[in-house]
Write a structure and sequence with these properties.
Elements (H helix, E strand, L loop, with lengths): L1 H16 L3 H7 L2 H16 L4 H29 L3 H12 L5 H16 L3 H8 L12 H30 L1 H17 L11 H10 L1 H15 L2 H11 L9 H11 L3 E2 L2 E3 L2 E3 L3 E2 L9 H26 L1
Helix pairs in contact: 1-5, 1-8, 1-14, 3-4, 3-9, 4-9, 6-7, 6-8, 6-14, 7-8, 8-9, 8-11, 8-13, 8-14, 9-10, 11-12, 11-13, 11-14, 12-13
Amino acid sequence: MMFAGMMLVAMGLDLALGWPDWLFRRIGHPVTWIGAAISALEARWNVGAAHQRRRGGVLTLIAIAGGAGALAVVVQGLLPNGAVGIVLGGVLAWPLVAMRSMHEHVMAVALPLESRDLPAARTAVSMIVGRDPALLDPSGVTRAALESLAENTSDGIVAPLLWGAVLGLPGIAAYKAVNTLDSMIGHKSVRYLHYGWASARFDDLVNLVPARLTGLLFALASGRAGDAMAAMRRDARNHRSPNAGWPEAALAGAMRIRLSGPRSYGDGVAAEPWVNAEAPDPTVPDLRRGLALYRAVMVLLAAALAVLALV
């Protein structure tokens, strides 16, 4: 399983280095490159009537995800066999794993909350959630950060590593392109309702298995698998997203807190159902608990990749 070995190397590099600021300043990041290509195509193809915008969105999905996957096929074909190829492949996959940055973003919320600096905590949480943080109390900020931690563990770490372990560099590159498309244009706004439809639906498809696997990893790593699995069975399908509910419900059940529920966006309040509704709201110390569980999930994921690499 050469591909699993590549993903394990990518995890190790991300854990050790993240994506250094000096490197970002010099060359940017693959996601910013993908984003620039999406913006260029959107300016050209997100025009006209609804059917024209939808067609343009399909073409954008094919061009961006297909282009990223095709380029990765070529690059992977040039890699040597054996350990050298595994290491080189891991280096190339490294920027597409967001394990360290996810931890840093949530810790950036936890630290001001712990020092009772609510405005700073609201600012920090606004970097990782789409809702309006202006009216959130400490519990609301904590809940928002934990929901982001659960969802992005799936989208930003488990899913790319899973597709990379299955398909190698083409899998992780194409997945990251699809996920970036969904983040940028997969919204039900007037501008993107038709143009982003294909990207949003395809992102739902490629995250079906990773989201459920992430929920399972949270359950196994928590020591409260029964509570986590019960919350997933009961509440995951009631979530607004076909995928995000699985890791969120598992995290909520494992930590014995409630998540989701009503939230405020710029254009109004979304009356979302609660996940693990009978449990209490999270408190500020729960962010540290959530991060500890996240780290345990990363250890479990790395162990699974190591086993695959050795088979």
